[in-house]
Amino acid sequence: MSRTPDQPALTPRFCFNTTALRDFLRISRGTVDDTISQNLNALVTPGTSNSFDPSSTTERIARPVHRRPIDTAACQQFKDKVLFPSWQSRSDVLNYCAGVATSPDPDDPDHVIRETEDLKARERLVDERLDPYSSRYFPREARTEALAMLIRNERMVESIIRSRTWSLVGERCDNGGVEYDKALDAWRRADG
Question: What's the superkingdom here (predicted)?
């Protein structure tokens, strides 16, 4: 089974380091979700099925490995030990960083620069007849605003990836018609 990356230490510094944040999410998704077909195929153990089945000769084309159902216990173990912990780890990171993005940022290194630019923009005399572009002012974005936008985007990506992964898991394992978020919540309650 896949080994998911360890969850990083959750600090504001980690969240504001967007490269580290994106790398963690990318590696975690690549380890489990992007390789879901390979992970599910690994659960099919050759030779564990019953001996030769005479009814298999009635089929013209044997079912490929990627379409064979997987043992229920192996599926459940994969979901409980690999899939859901990976999703939970990413959820924890995104939730923590969303909290950081909505909190005041006393350590913002660009705060003084933004304040100075805002003050200059307010004091500037604008004569649009002479220069129609002189009234344009694009304030710098605070790093908390940039982080909030990144988290929103990553949550949308996460939703799409989880939906796709869950549908592939549902093809090979029995999901009982449950949506991925409800299955994850049930796992959280059982695990917690």
Answer: Eukaryota
pLDDT digits (tens, 9 = 90+) for 75-84: 888 888 999 9
What residues have CB less than 8 Å from 88, skipping those under 6 apart?
Answer: 184, 187, 188
Q: Which two tokens stand for residue 82?
A: 């690999």
pTM of the model: 0.72
Query: 111, 183, 153: which is closest to 25 by C-alpha?
Result: 153
Distance CA(71)–CA(45), nearest Å, equals 9
What is the DSSP track for 101-139?
HHS--TT-TTHHHHHHHHHHHHH----TTT-TTTT---P
In angstroms, the CA 168 to CA 164 distance is 6
Place of tokens 């604008």: 126
